[in-house]
Amino acid sequence: MPTRAPKVLVNEVSVTFESHGRSVVALDRISLQAHAGEFLCIVGPSGSGKSTLLRVLAGLLPQSAGDVRIEVDRPGTPLTAMVFQEHALLPWRTVRDNVTFGLENRGVRRAEREARAREMLAMVGLTRFAQHYPHQLSGGMKQRVGIARALANDPEVLLMDEPLAALDAQTRAIMQEELLRIWATLGKTVVYVTHSLEEALLLGDRIVLLTAHPGRVCQVYPVNLGRPRGLEVRGSPVYGALLEKIWSRLREEVVRAMAEDRGGEHA
Amino acid sequence: MSLAVPAVLLVLWEMCSRHAIVSPRYFPPPTTVGWVLVDGFAAGDLGTQSLVTLTRLGFAFAAAAVPGVLLGLLMGMARPVRDAVEPYIAFIFPVPKITLLPFLLIILGVGEPAFVLTGATSAFFQIVISTLGGVQTMDPRLLEVGRNYGARGARLFWKVILPAALPAIFTGLRLGLGLALVALVAVEFIAAKSGLGHLVYRHWQMLSTPEMYAAFAIVGALGLLLTRGLRAVQARVLTWQEEVGRL
Amino acid sequence: MRALGRWLGEQHWIAVGSPIVLFIAWEWASATDLLREAFFPRPSTIVIHLRHLAADGTLWDHAAMTLIRIGWAFALAAVLGVGIGLAMGLWRQLREGLDPVFAVIYPIPSILFLPLVSFLVPPGEIALVMTTAVTSFFLIAFTTTHGVRQIDRLVVEAAVHYGARGRRLFATVLLPGALPFIFTGLRLGLGFALIVVVAVEIVSTSRGLGALLWLSWQILKIEDMYATFFVIALLGAVLSYGLAALRTRLLPWVQDVTARSG
């Protein structure tokens, strides 16, 4: 067990939204941590505030209560870099200029920017498309650019908001293996939000299960599936058992959330 | 729509005019214009002149809408027709329709037909282009579904093609109406002896500015009413359309 | 040559052939008086008159006048329109304040502003240019504002996350994001400037293509009328479609939305 401070510490974080005069509690006293170099997956039904939590970590959204701490190992590099679900690339910039966007904003010199871009594009396998525009790429390729952009910034923590959700099943499977390969190479701390339990089990070291309405930490599960891991792990009995166990718990939450939605309709 | 800013501007205008900060001859106070407006309708010819403009608009729109929609539909569904007609449409569309006025004045003489037709051509091209666009950009899968469920020929047209193109057609009609009004008012300003556009011109020449602004205001109100009104109708009638455009 | 043949083969021959057939038919109908030659002079005669107008300098004189006015009016409308449009797109209060004012003024036919403008500035070129600029200004402002507002919120969020703030955010995200719409607004605004300038020239001046057209009408020189009309139409086509052709060069990242089916 590591004795240093965790890389990411979320302490009693709550987020409340004001909407049409009513308060909606999106996150209720969330506490969790991610260790250095860990791949932490956050899973939960819709409405569990997974994306909200990620945005708080990214500093895009202020929390209403609680605090977030990220250990700085390399001062001068950004704390976080996020890979968005709908890639969120700038359509008017080439692939290469999208990848260097964060570096530009931080005043990194051109030579270094270009070197970094080349490195990252090679890592995600898009070297040939450096001068293309986003609209010329497929969904999977666009997402890879998003990943390259995040990695180019060399953040302390990599945040990923359901990055593969918009892809078809085959592309998704390939991208999952890509992600594992890249992560193994770079050793970053990753906080990864997903709807898919299968994906979380495939990728993660630990899984945090959130409830919905409001989002709370329900349970944290360690994933004892060993590394390196590939798609074939889905056939192993350990995987099957874990899937069964977490899913039955998750299912309760999903059903409960759906019932509340229905109840809300009659309110 | 917040009326605060226009209201403040009107008050400002009123005060500046009354205190001669701006020349009251060229910029009479809004209250004066208001009285003249009311008076114009009650005792004067503002009402009849408005009716003249509206009547011309009605005829112009009818003359443009029917052939316009028909031609647009035809062009959308028959490729040879589109290829034959498109160069003319493309060539004439960017031409100021007011330039057609002198030709029509010669051919049809100085009178209502020339005025109305000039207004009609303004609307006509817009309606054709919008209708054509509506047919061309309809989801081709709708056609497949229609055919798959047994709709052919006339039925396919009435049940699938026309409804699918209807939002674009409606938008075209709406824009066309606005364009026709603009063109007609310009024609009245330049060449006619009646109508709101002519009123603005006449009172401008005579420097009877309150009357000029009154006519001006009616034109503005008319334009606003027609565009906003039709937009509301469009939203109501075509309830399945997501969002009706801004302009 | 082969490329031309192929292009013609793709049914474009109808598009090219149709006007040619029309002109031939027109020439014939006019010569045989099927169409009254007084109303529809033969295209060959029109061409001769066009040549004369060009030769003695009249045409260039008037055309230049119109173009200069359009140039100034468009520059005025573009600078003010984009500037205010951007401001309205970025600051909600400004937009909500100006929106009702704009909405009332925009539908008014441009030519009606001539009297107003004549009260504010000395009569002459300035009044003409300003009247011409009015509707274009509103058009450009509207489309610019819309261009800013329609930028995907997620893209802005991502840009902010990656460190773009204030001026950088504006230059790298908001401006490029709005650019396709700004461009469309400028294109439409230019087309409108032509429409208004011609109408204004008819009413209030003796130089310019609109004035030439009206003058020709008044002295019933119908061939000159057709010739002038043709020049105006050419101008309209160049202004409208010229900018459109530049679009792919200036905005390489924008996909062409118009899909032609069937």
Secondary-structure element pattern of chain B, one letter each: HHHHHHHHHH
Looking at the overall shape, the CATH architecture of chain B is Orthogonal Bundle
* Gap between N and C termini of chain C: 27 Å
Average pLDDT of chain C works out at 87
Please give the CATH class of chain B.
Answer: Mainly Alpha
Q: Looking at CATH, which topology of chain C would you report?
A: MetI-like fold
Number of domain modules of chain B: 1
Please state the structural category of chain B.
mainly alpha
* β-strand amount of chain B: under 5%
Using the CA coordinates, give the radius of gyration of chain B. 22 Å
Sketch the topology of chain C as an H/E string, one letter per element: HHHHHHHHHH
Task: Write the SSE topology.
The complex is a heterotrimer of chains A (267), B (247) and C (262).
Chain A lengths: L7 E12 L2 E13 L4 E5 L6 H9 L6 E6 L9 E4 L11 H5 L1 H5 L4 H15 L14 H14 L4 E5 L7 H18 L2 E6 L2 H7 L2 E5 L6 E6 L14 H30 L1
Parallel strand pairs in A: 3-7, 3-8, 5-6, 6-7
Antiparallel strand pairs in A: 1-2, 1-4, 8-9
Helix pairs in contact in A: 4-5
Chain B lengths: L3 H15 L11 H13 L3 H32 L1 H14 L7 H9 L3 H25 L3 H9 L4 H38 L5 H10 L3 H29 L10
Helix pairs in contact in B: 2-10, 3-4, 3-6, 3-8, 5-6, 6-8, 7-8, 8-9, 8-10, 9-10
Chain C lengths: L1 H30 L11 H13 L2 H33 L1 H14 L7 H8 L4 H25 L3 H9 L4 H39 L4 H10 L3 H29 L12
Describe the structure.
The complex is a heterotrimer of chains A (267), B (247) and C (262). Helix content of chain A is 39%, strand content 23%. By secondary structure, chain A is an alpha/beta fold. Chain B is mostly helical and 247 residues long. Helices cover 79% and strands 0% of the residues of chain B. Chain B has helices at residues 4-18, 30-42, 46-77, 79-92, 100-108, 112-136, 140-148, 153-190, 196-205, 209-237. In chain B, helix 5 packs across helix 6. Chain B is elongated. Chain C has one domain (42-250): MetI-like (MetI-like fold, Orthogonal Bundle), CATH 1.10.3720. Chain C has 10 helices and no strands. The two termini of chain C are 27 Å apart. Mean pLDDT of chain C is 87; it is low at 258-262. The interface between B and C is large, with 59 and 59 residues.
